[in-house]
Amino acid sequence: MSFTKYIPDDIQEKYEIHDYRHAAAILANEYPEEFEQICIALREFRLTIEDIKKKGGNESDIPKKISSILRPLGWEEGKLSAKTVVNDTELNVETHKIDYVKERVAFDLEWNSKDQTFDRDLYAFRAFFDYNRISVGVLFTRSTTLDPLFKSLGKDADGKKYSDKYGASTTHLGKLLYRLDSGRNGGCPVLVIGITPNCVDGIPDIETIAEVGEPVLAQDIATLIVPEEEELSDTETEESN
User: Fold this and answer.
1) Domain ranges in the chain?
2) DSSP structure class, residue 226
């Protein structure tokens, strides 16, 4: 049965979602409180054009938006330490940190890091799962449907295209999904949530941006928006002539 039955309609409309190993069903049925808190964060999450333009990668204000919602609800940074014995010698093995863990649910955010970061994230999910610390993971990152918007923003004061910092070798769904398809998450169920233009305030419909092409200066984006009351149907236009 499709995983979409477990995802609220408004979340599906706002984000691009992919499900691996029945993650959505596990979240909805086994961890409804944590799942509802994730949905609250997803509903509240919004971006602006200025957020996108700011420098900082994963240290920008965008991860802080999620932290401001989840931290007060008890989501803490997680770190796993596992002891391995080889020929009577004890070795301490640690995974990297996971941004947010609550009960047996892990949540990681990658806005604009190097795409190799996904390997660390999936390794961490896999290790936490194998050592019985979590039952499911959620990865929150950019959808490639944001690319036309990035291209439409033109250049910064130094003459650099804003789209250049969101390049092919950064974290986005195109770099994540093939890693999951090849099983790099091991047995850990993973729900993938992609940030789309529906999360961005103050832009026209993304199809309109794509038709205009690049470059479109940020100050000109508003001119692409036609107020609803000013739009005329083809029939009305013909009648007026």
Assistant:
1) 3-240
2) P
What is the distance between the alpha carbons of residues 66 and 45, in angstroms, rounded to a whole number?
A: 7
Cα 29–124–39 angle (5° rounding)? 35
C-alpha 229/C-alpha 240 separation (Å) is 16
Q: Tens digit of pLDDT for each residue in 148-182?
A: 999 999 999 889 999 999 999 999 999 999 999 99
Query: CA-to-CA distance for 200 and 202, rounded, in angstroms?
Result: 7
Q: How far is CA 145 from its chain centroid?
A: 11
How many beta carbons lie within 10 A of that of residue 27, not counting itself? 26
Condensed to tens digits (0 to 9), the pLDDT of residues 191-234 reads 999 999 999 998 755 455 544 444 343 334 433 333 333 334 44
Provide the CB-side half-sphere exposure for 111 (13 A, CA): 20
> What value does the CA radius of gyration of the chain take, rounded to a whole number of Å?
21
Question: pTM above 0.85?
Answer: no
CB distance 89 to 97 below 8 Å:
no
The β-bridge relationship of strands 76-78 and 98-102 is: antiparallel
Element (H, E) at 194: strand 190-195
- Domain 3-240 fold is Restriction Endonuclease (3.40.91)
pLDDT of 73-98, one tens digit each?
999 999 988 777 788 887 777 767 89
